Every structure is written in C-alpha cells, then in structure tokens.
Fold this sequence. Notes:
Blueprint: H1 5-28, H2 92-98, E1 102-106, E2 109-110, E3 114-116, E4 123-124, H3 126-139, E5 145-149, H4 155-160, E6 166-167, H5 175-178, E7 182-183, E8 188-197, E9 212-216, H6 220-228, E10 233-237, H7 240-248, E11 254-258, H8 259-266, E12 272-275, E13 281-284, E14 287-288, H9 293-308, H10 311-319
The chain binds glutamic acid (GLU).
Amino acid sequence: MTTHAPTTSASRRRAVMLFVLVATVLVAAGCVRFPAPENNPPTAAAVVPTPPGVATDVPVETPPNAETCDATESLRPPAQMPVPGRMPPRSSMADIVAHGRLIVGLDIGSNLFSFRDPITGDIQGFDVDLAREITRAIFGDPNRVEFRVLSSAERIDALRAAEVDVVVKTMSITCERRRQIAFSAPYYIASQRILALRNSPIQGPSQLAGRNVCAARGTTSIGRIQSIEPRAQVVTTTTWADCLVLLQQGQVDAVTTDDAILAGLAAQDPWAQVVGPSLGEEYYGVGIPPGKDDMVRFVNGVLERIRNDGTWWRMYDRWLSILDSGYGPPQVIYRD
Ligand code: GLU
C-alpha cells in the first residue's frame, strides 16, 4: 500500500495542475465568464425585531396605593393544620387532593422568582419553592404540582375561572385586586425601582420625563410610574423578559417594576443596573380564587410554618440574597 501512495498523489497533483492550466486558458480566452458584481452592493439591513404584543398607546392607570383598605390583612390559619394527605372533607384542599396535583399559575421568565433553568429545564425560584411548600402541606410530597404559565395580565382571570388553584407570581396585594380574588397574607415585600443601562443618564424617575419606560401589562408598576412621573412614556409588553429585550435593543430607555424582578433582569445583562430610590412598596401574596376562605387560611398556615422554621430565610438565601432588601419576612395581621 505505502509503495503506491507516492504514485497516486503525484498523478493527482498532475491532474490538478492540468485543470488549473485549462481553466486559466479558457478564462483568458473569454470562454468562461464570472458573474459581474451588481451595481448596488448588497447591504445587511439591521432588522430589530420587536417582541409580540408591545403597546405604546398605554392608558393612564390607577396607582396601587390610590386606596387604602388594609390590603395585607388576611384570615387566621386554622388552630391545627391538617395532616398532609388528609385534608378536611369537602374543603378546597380536599378537592385539590382529588384532582391529584396542585395547579399553580406562574411565569417562567421572572428570574429569581420563577424561571426555567436553561440547563436542566426545571422551573425554579423563590415563588416555585413557595408553591412546592404549599404542595407538600397538602400532599406530603412537594412534587405533586403542575405549573401553568401565565403572563402578569392573565393572573386574575385564571383565578376567577378556577383554571389554577393558586397563583404564586410576584403578585402584589392591592385593594382593587382584592375585590376580584382572594389573597394569602403577604410573604414578601418588594420595592418598585428603575432598571437602566450603565451608560444611561437615568438615575431616578424625573429623568424618565419624555423617555420610554417599559412595564409588563396588567401590573401595578404602570399606574405607579405614571403617577410619579406623568411625563414618562410607558411602553407595555406581555412579559418582563420582553422589557429587557426592548432595553437591550435601545427601543426603551428604562424598565420599571419591583426590585425583586429587576434584579433578576440585571443578573442576565451586565450592562443593566437598578437605579434610583424606592418608588413604593409591593406586598406579594399568593393569589387564591374568590370565596375560598379555607384555602386562604390553609396557605396562611403554610406561610406561618415557613416563617417560623427557617424555611423562609433558606429560600431567601438561596434565591434573593443578591437583593439585600433588608425587609425579611413581612409582619402579618389577621382579621379574625
Ligand atoms: N408586583 C407587580 C404586580 O403584581 C409586578 C409583578 C409581575 O408582573 O409579576 O403587578
């Protein structure tokens, strides 16, 4: 074999040289023409795609603190929590046991609270851990849970239509929402702030005058920024991740919402930073279908347990320590 190799490569070299020679002669003789360059060189148009559902004609909304109604007061947990897997007959929790899993509405683009891990594909975060604690208390097994992806604007309708058993999605307790759905006691306190790029002049709400600021539809963030800086031009999207895309593409100057969500966006982009003072506090509660008082009491019992046995701080340290919010678990006031 080795003795034939030089012969083979020598003849291949000769064939290549012959081809080059013939081709050169043909081109020189004008028998072969290469296409002439076009008059207008091709241009690469920089198409900046806009996420679907972006709106710029945003009506003025009521700020979340327009009314006071002791929004964060809730119902007292049962004196004795039922044993997992043995829920009281005819209770809302017994219905959940009957359908085999807790159906939880959340988002998968809210980094730190509920998001899909790109490597494992698992949905995780602070809100996911809380949803699993509620699941554990009902079934004795934190995995008997089904996640339904909801945008911020879909949360209330999903609860009212009983498409989900609970919503655990950075959902602020407000008087207006309490007229439509039930809430647990608060489990987290966030502050609305602003996210801007590091080279931006925006340092607080007054620099938003005449500039575009993004917020997800169906959130308290819109009415609050409109009331604090009415000259800001609010652009709305379906998800918070879409607001980050608009900021990165230069289509908005800033994003405004809870520091808890903004920190999750900033963690995905080293050019983005949270700026300015708190624009107001947001108390997160678990959203519950209206009229399910037994479920409200039960979830409040779960929240009591996780505050008292150290689980709340373990969840905070795991997901939210970068926030350094300083609030700790919220104080709870029960109505009865
Ligand atoms: N906390 C705000 C709200 O409930 C924003 C959170 C979110 O969109 O998930 O409207």
